[in-house]
Amino acid sequence: MDSVYVVSKTNSMKIIIILTSFLLSAVLYSQTSDSLKTKRHSISFTYSPDYCFRKIASNASSEWVKIGLDTLEVGKFGYTAGINYTFALNKRLGISTGLLLSNKGEKTKKTYSSTPSIFNYNNHYYYIDIPLTARYNLINRSFKLYAFGGISSNIFLVEKTTQVTGYTNDDATISYYNKQNFSNVNFAILAGFGLQYSITKKWDLKIEPIYRRSITAIANTPVKKYLYSIGINIGLSTSF
Fold this sequence. Notes:
Blueprint: H1 2-30, E1 41-57, H2 63-72, E2 73-74, E3 76-88, E4 93-108, E5 111-112, E6 118-140, E7 143-166, E8 171-178, E9 185-198, E10 203-214, E11 224-239
Antiparallel strand pairs: 1-3, 1-11, 2-4, 3-4, 4-6, 5-6, 6-7, 7-8, 7-9, 9-10, 10-11
C-alpha cells in the first residue's frame, strides 16, 4: 500500500512540475512578444453547474470496498463559482488565476425497502479552488475563441453528507459534517475552451466548457478517491 501511495504521489508531483514549467515558459516567451495595444487586465465573475463524480483506486485487500462503492454510488450535480483574474501577456497569451467556491462529490442510488421505503445519501465536498492557467486566443476580436489549461490548488473546507430517508407520509432529511481524514489541499488539472463576446463597451459574456480532475487523493485512506467534474463556466468579464 505504501509503495502504491509513493508512486501515485511521485506521478502527481511530476504533473505539477511539468504544468508549472509550461506556465513559466509562457511568461518568459511573452517578454519577447509584441506588446498589447488593448487592455491587459480583466476580472470575471463566473458560475459553473457541474456534473461531479470520482475515480477510486485501491490495493488488493481493499478491492471489495471499491467494488461495493462503484456499484452503489453515482454522480451528482455540484457547482463552482467565484472571481477570476487574467493578465494578458500579449495579443494571444494570458495567465489566469482566481478564488472559487466549489461543491464536488457523489451520491448513492436510491435504495428501496419496506421501512423506510426509500433511502439514499449525498456527499458534498466543499473546497476553495485557486487555479493557475494559461489561455491562448485562437480568435481575438470582439468575438474571442480560446483554449486554456493548467493546475488548481483546492483547499478543503468540509464534507457535508445529506441523508434522505423516505417514509409513507413524509421524507426525513438529516445533514452532518465531517473534516476528519481529509487532505488539507487537493491538486487538480483542468482544461477547456471558451467563447467570449462583447455585449457592452465594458462587459463581455463568457461561456467555457471545462473539465477538472484531481491528481491527488482527497484523503490518505486505503481506498483513495480522485474527484472529477465536467461543467460550463458562465459569467461576465470586464477589462481595464
